[in-house]
Amino acid sequence: ELRHRASPWQRNLGYPLAMLGLLALTGISVLIVCFHVLELLLDDAAMPRGIQDACLGQVSFSIFGSFGAALQVILIFYLMVSSVVGFYSSPLFTRLLPERQDTPLTKIIGNCVSLLVLSSALPVFSRTLGITRFDLLGDFGRFNWLGNFYIVFLYNMGFAGLTTLCLVKKVSWAVQAELIRAFGEDG
Q1: Looking at the whole model, is its pTM more than 0.90?
Q2: What is the pLDDT of residues 75-105, one digit of tens each?
Q3: Contact assessment for residue 152 and residue 146, using Cβ atoms and an 8 Å cutoff
């Protein structure tokens, strides 16, 4: 129903651009994680430990300067939104989704706790994946497990592999459905 009410501009330009943007952000995040895996294999300094004696504004946290910092912010925001969407899309937590003007207090508290846990895990998540080296003033690099090469390596490989698998599955199924629809109408 929403697709039928959407304007032709929105259907023909807005949706494809949004989809290309999501594909680009997912692809960029997978590429960054793959480069981080290579860094982990070649250099011990790539481990997500805390940064010592790095004063804010004196040291660049991105090798691409301002563009890289802006890209990191966009990717962290994308990871935040996608983790919230993924959380509420999982079968276990769909009942926690708030309803308009009919949300009990216990469900509101559950949503607040869930969003607090997700937002607290985001800095560690983005640091472990190598998306940013910024410590976010929380000194998240002091966790002991962040110094364990095998945990960080497997975490990065799992993210890259599962994200690529989901991306290929979604894109290939969409292309397959469009081909079936196109050839089904002609035959």
Answers
A1: no
A2: 989 999 999 998 998 888 888 888 888 889 9
A3: yes
